[in-house]
């Protein structure tokens, strides 16, 4: 005698698939259609250039210094900005985490993120100009004798990236840091560890995995800089970043195939840095950051 | 914690506050410049403008057709908010309550659009939307903006739904509620604070979302931030004060919603969206 067969719906429900699970479908379909499909479409398109063989776009990119140079230009902006914002953010996050009234500071810092890069660029055009308040203050204080040129060059873009990037890095670091149990540090202090020892042997190892993620997110943001590189930088030369190259290919030359190739290269460079950082993170301590048992 | 009273510790603390103070000073200086300039009659080579006026606001309103731009912006933003809630909340519910094969893959699918910067996935996305004839109009802008907002709603809502006791739902089932009734009468009221917070964050992010709108918008579907970009880009065509007036209107629009959102969420939540 054979065992009674269990209906398919019950077998599926036992594996977590029932009517309720289907609620996830619209979102999955939407993202497959508008995120995954465009990616593969772009990848496919990049191998079907307007002229030449399969790899014509890529060989053109890597033989034209006006194009391949954008990778170095963008890295030269994104890496220093990411390192600088992290170096600024970590000590300040350590100081702020013990404060009772963090809310005012975090609210102020969320403003530049909310306003976005376009407004920051517009504001800096006024503020950093030769007649702007920044140069005027430095002149009055006697720190400089002629206005510093901070616009339409490397520094304009750099400053705008720091203004939007620092709050982002700081808030992310702060949220990781508040996940570390203060009891661990107190235990260290009870056992006679000084502030530097506590930082070096307790907090930093616990925080490093989080900092690796923060580094990745900040870097990826800085690497995809677009509006401020156009408005505050010199988009034809020193700050011709890779997103400008992609945009020009798509919307000025109408060469969507080349634009897709540049976008793919942009994604690959980001991925390479992220993978390198996360691989290094794999070597770090990963375990509970809470005190207590278990 | 033992307070460290050595000189080196005090100097270090001072250096930290100096950095943050310098940052905030410059941030406010930057914002104040825009506001001051928007009220200035003429401002060249002095600390403060020669005189004050409000006429730039009316000229910006007319020159940049801000009435149309603002109404387009709010239509797009509210559509994005509504649809991302409609798709996102049920998906978050399913993910919070069920474990199924391939769930990790689905989570990765929702995480990626938040980690990959908009300009990177925006160019292939815009290409697809142009080929489909959707870009250049409002529908294309809404679709493009939904790509990061749907996952955002899902990832914000999952922990919120997980903390609601399943016994409440079981009780409703015992009393004969079907899934739809359960959703409307039991879950929706309980989830309202979370949904409100998630959707307000979506709203703030969509008003300020430049890249995706920029890549997909046509002349009649520009949002305020894209119109501002074009105005700054073509600086010299219009008076600087007029552009600044528009920038102030943009700032006020964004910051009002930010203030409302901050009544429901912690500022760090705006950033720490990708935390596991």
Automatic annotation (TrEMBL), chain A:
Positions of transmembrane segments: 20-46, 66-92, 104-125, 154-177, 202-223, 261-284
Family statement: Belongs to the binding-protein-dependent transport system permease family. CysTW subfamily.
Gene3D superfamilies xrefs: MetI-like (1.10.3720.10)
Species per Swiss-Prot/TrEMBL record: Bosea lathyri
Domain of life: Bacteria
Membrane topology type: Multi-pass membrane protein
CDD domains linked to this entry: TM_PBP2
Annotated ranges, domain ABC transmembrane type-1: 71-277
Matching Pfam families: BPD_transp_1
Swiss-Prot/TrEMBL GO biological process terms: transmembrane transport
Location (main, coarse): membrane
PROSITE patterns given in the database record: ABC_TM1 (PS50928)
Subcellular location as annotated: Cell membrane
UniProt-recorded name of the protein: Carbohydrate ABC transporter membrane protein 1, CUT1 family
Keywords: Cell membrane, Membrane, Transmembrane, Transmembrane helix, Transport
InterPro entries, sorted: MetI-like, MetI-like_sf
A cellular component annotation (GO) from this entry: plasma membrane
UniProtKB/TrEMBL annotation, chain B:
Gene Ontology cellular-component annotations: plasma membrane
Every ABC transmembrane type-1 domain range: 70-261
Gene Ontology biological process terms in this record: transmembrane transport
Record's keyword terms, sorted: Cell inner membrane, Cell membrane, Membrane, Transmembrane, Transmembrane helix, Transport
Family listed: Belongs to the binding-protein-dependent transport system permease family.
Membrane topology, as annotated: Multi-pass membrane protein
The name this protein goes by in its record: Putative spermidine/putrescine transport system permease protein
Localization annotation: Cell inner membrane; Cell membrane
Listed transmembrane segments: 12-35, 72-96, 108-130, 142-161, 182-204, 224-240, 247-265
Record PANTHER family: INNER MEMBRANE ABC TRANSPORTER PERMEASE PROTEIN YDCV (PTHR43357)
SUPFAM superfamilies assigned to the protein according to its UniProt record, in alphabetical order: MetI-like
């Amino acid at each position: 005698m054979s065992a009674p067969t269990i209906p398919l719906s019950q077998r599926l429900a036992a594996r977590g698939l029932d009517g309720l699970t289907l609620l996830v479908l619209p979102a999955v379909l939407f993202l497959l259609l508008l995120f995954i499909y465009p990616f593969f479409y772009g990848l496919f398109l990049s191998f079907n250039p307007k002229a030449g063989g399969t790899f014509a776009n890529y060989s053109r990119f890597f033989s034209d210094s006006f194009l391949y140079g954008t990778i170095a230009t963008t890295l030269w902006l994104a890496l220093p900005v990411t390192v600088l914002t992290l170096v600024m953010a970590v000590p300040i996050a350590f100081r702020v985490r013990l404060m009772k009234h963090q809310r005012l500071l975090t609210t102020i810092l969320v403003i530049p993120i909310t306003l976005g890069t376009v407004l920051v660029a517009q504001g800096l055009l006024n503020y950093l100009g030769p007649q702007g308040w920044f140069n005027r203050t430095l002149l009055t204080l006697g720190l400089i004798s002629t206005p510093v040129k901070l616009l339409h060059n490397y520094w304009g873009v750099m400053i705008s990236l720091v203004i939007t990037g620092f709050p982002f890095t700081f808030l992310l670091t702060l949220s990781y840091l508040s996940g570390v149990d203060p009891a661990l540090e107190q235990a260290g202090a009870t056992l006679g560890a000084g502030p530097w020892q506590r930082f070096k042997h307790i907090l930093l190892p616990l925080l490093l995995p989080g900092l690796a993620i923060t580094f990745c997110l900040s870097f990826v943001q800085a690497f995809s800089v677009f509006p401020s590189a156009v408005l505050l930088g010199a988009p034809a030369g020193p700050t011709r970043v890779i997103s400008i190259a992609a945009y020009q290919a798509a919307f000025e030359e109408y060469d969507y195939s080349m634009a897709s190739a540049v976008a793919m290269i942009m994604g690959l460079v980001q991925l390479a840095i992220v993978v390198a950082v996360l691989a290094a993170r794999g070597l770090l301590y990963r375990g509970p950051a809470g005190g207590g048992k278990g | 914690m033992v307070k460290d009273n050595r000189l080196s510790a005090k100097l270090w603390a001072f250096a930290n506050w100096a950095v943050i103070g310098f940052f905030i000073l410059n941030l406010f200086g930057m914002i104040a410049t825009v506001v001051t300039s928007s009220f200035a009659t003429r401002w060249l080579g002095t600390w403060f403008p020669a005189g004050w006026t409000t006429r730039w606001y009316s000229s910006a309103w007319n020159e940049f057709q801000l009435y149309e731009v603002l109404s387009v912006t709010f239509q797009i933003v509210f559509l994005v908010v509504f649809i991302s809630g409609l798709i996102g909340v049920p998906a978050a519910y399913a993910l919070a309550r069920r474990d199924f094969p391939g769930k990790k893959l689905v989570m990765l699918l929702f995480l990626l659009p938040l980690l990959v910067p908009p300009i990177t996935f925006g160019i292939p996305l815009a290409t697809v939307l142009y080929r489909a004839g959707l870009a250049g109009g409002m529908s294309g802008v809404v679709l493009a903006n939904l790509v990061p907002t749907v996952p955002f709603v899902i990832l914000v809502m999952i922990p919120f739904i997980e903390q609601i006791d399943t016994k409440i739902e079981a009780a409703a089932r015992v009393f004969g509620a079907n899934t739809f009734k359960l959703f409307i009468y039991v879950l929706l009221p309980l989830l309202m604070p979370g949904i409100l917070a998630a959707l307000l964050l979506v709203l703030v992010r969509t008003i300020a979302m430049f890249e995706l709108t920029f890549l997909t918008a046509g002349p009649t579907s520009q949002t305020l931030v894209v119109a501002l970009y074009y105005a700054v880009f073509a600086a010299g065509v219009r008076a600087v004060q007029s552009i600044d007036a528009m920038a102030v209107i943009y700032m006020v629009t964004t910051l009002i919603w930010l203030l409302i959102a901050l009544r429901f969420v912690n500022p760090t939540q705006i950033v720490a969206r990708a935390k596991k």
